[in-house]
Write a structure and sequence with these properties.
The chain is an alpha+beta fold. It has six helices and eight strands. Strands 1, 2, 3, 4, 5, 6, 7 and 8 form an eight-stranded antiparallel sheet that branches.
């Protein structure tokens, strides 16, 4: 990934936070004759004195289960907030006119080693953790044991767990750092005037990164 110095995100805590907040990853892997991409939620697990690991599951019928060997390197891509940036929001447009549109975004690349986890007990624990994490925001969280046990057992038989030990994290945060403060303020105003959640999320990133 091309990362100009002013867009580089090197803070590990910030990278982990993006992974937690935007867990739907694009998992890129290679097989003997192709490059493959799968889209699946990956749960971040913190580990002491390490970058952590990514936990997930895929359908047993997914070719991924046969195409990747344990220990093979894979890449998980996590997309954070993003937004189109109009040049009309730049204060310098009126003076010089030398401005163009761009796209601001946050992205994290997590490189790691892949391992299949074909174990019913491991899968059940993973699914309980995954659902507890995402259901915690609801007034009445759904639990795995809310469904019939035989039904859950059948579903667990149909999936295989995966664990990716993170070996390297790379982050890019393109948040108008290369613009003058007056242009950054114009971008903030423009994004906040729109009614899209992504625009507001990107505005929050711009304000934080540029200390506005």
């Amino acid at each position: 990934m091309y990362i100009p110095k002013h867009f580089s995100e090197t803070d590990t805590d910030a990278l982990h936070e993006t992974v937690r907040a935007y867990p739907l990853a694009t998992l890129v892997s290679t097989s003997s004759n192709s490059i493959n991409a799968n889209h699946l939620p990956l749960h971040f697990a913190q580990k002491k004195d390490a970058l952590g690991s990514l936990i997930g599951h895929v359908a047993r019928a997914n070719p991924l289960c046969k195409e990747i060997m344990d220990g093979q390197e894979v890449l998980a891509i996590f997309h954070g907030p993003h937004a189109y940036i109009s040049p009309s929001w730049y204060a310098t447009k009126a003076r010089a006119g030398m401005v163009v549109p761009t796209w601001n975004y946050v992205v994290v690349h997590a490189h790691g080693t892949f391992k299949l986890m074909d174990d019913a007990q491991w899968l059940r624990a993973h699914l309980e953790t995954l659902t507890a994490d995402h259901e915690s925001r609801f007034e009445k969280p759904w639990r795995l044991d809310d469904a019939p046990a035989a039904f859950i057992d059948k579903l667990i038989d149909a999936v295989v767990g995966i664990e990716i030990e993170i070996t390297h994290l790379t982050g890019k945060c393109k948040a108008s750092q290369n613009q003058a403060v007056e242009n950054q303020l114009g971008v903030l105003q423009g994004l906040r005037a729109r009614d899209q959640q992504q625009d507001h999320a990107m505005a929050s990133v711009i304000a934080r990164v540029n200390h506005l």
